[in-house]
Design a protein that fits this description.
Helix content is 23%, strand content 30%. It has two domains: 127 residues, TonB (TolA/TonB C-terminal domain); 95 residues, TolA/TonB C-terminal domain. β5 and β6 form a beta hairpin. Strands 4-3-7 form a three-stranded antiparallel β-sheet, with helices on one face. Strands 8-11-12 form a three-stranded antiparallel β-sheet, with no helix packed on it. It has a three-stranded antiparallel β-sheet with strand order 10-9-13, covered by helices on one side. The chain is built from six helices and 13 strands. It is rod-shaped. About 9% of the residues have low confidence. It is of the alpha+beta class.
Amino acid sequence: MKPILCIALMLLPVWTIAQNEKTDSTFALVEKMPEFPGGQEALIAYLSKELRYPEEARKSGAAGKVVTQFVVSENGSISDIQIIRSVGCGCDEEAIRVISKMPQWVPGMQDGVPIKVYFKMPITFKMSTDESKNTGIMQASFPGGDKALEQFLKKNVLYPDEAKKNKINGDVQVKFTIQPDGSLNNPQIITSLGSGCDEEAVRAIQSMPAWLPAKKNCVAMESAETLSIHFPPK
């Protein structure tokens, strides 16, 4: 999905950071400021084409202004990209990625000589009205999704001999906790079948790889999950 850019803010580059005219031979304010090749309209067109809304930010409802600062050198190349104000959830990284791919700029000039210049550029990530209603919470998930979870259970869940003997047919429901690092602990039987099925369900869950943890505003958090495991295994 394409982000909505707050283009007007791009007209406020360096002026807000120009405390000193010169810092280690890199200027913050010069007679002729650096310019994207083709000017402001070309910069807007470039960002509209290249910028992508990070999936993590979209799912979590994260939005806001990423303020970047970078150096435009004497030959127009870009270096030293920094985040001055962060949004997180992949937006900072996306802003850096797009800026690092830019073609060479028209360099800034001082006394008719090309010179290094600090340039500050805000980029705003904004979702559509419907997407902006997201709660900011992403649910925990098995690595690879539901289909991978189904395959794991099919391969790893065994049918206990006692359950076979008693012709047990049904679901064991297990509740467990997923930690911020994706590890699983504290499995508890919610719905029991007995005949060794409860123990086998717990064993299978404890043998699982780490899950993708739940997140709120892109920060991993502890969550609870309930899983039904069928016997005989399908």
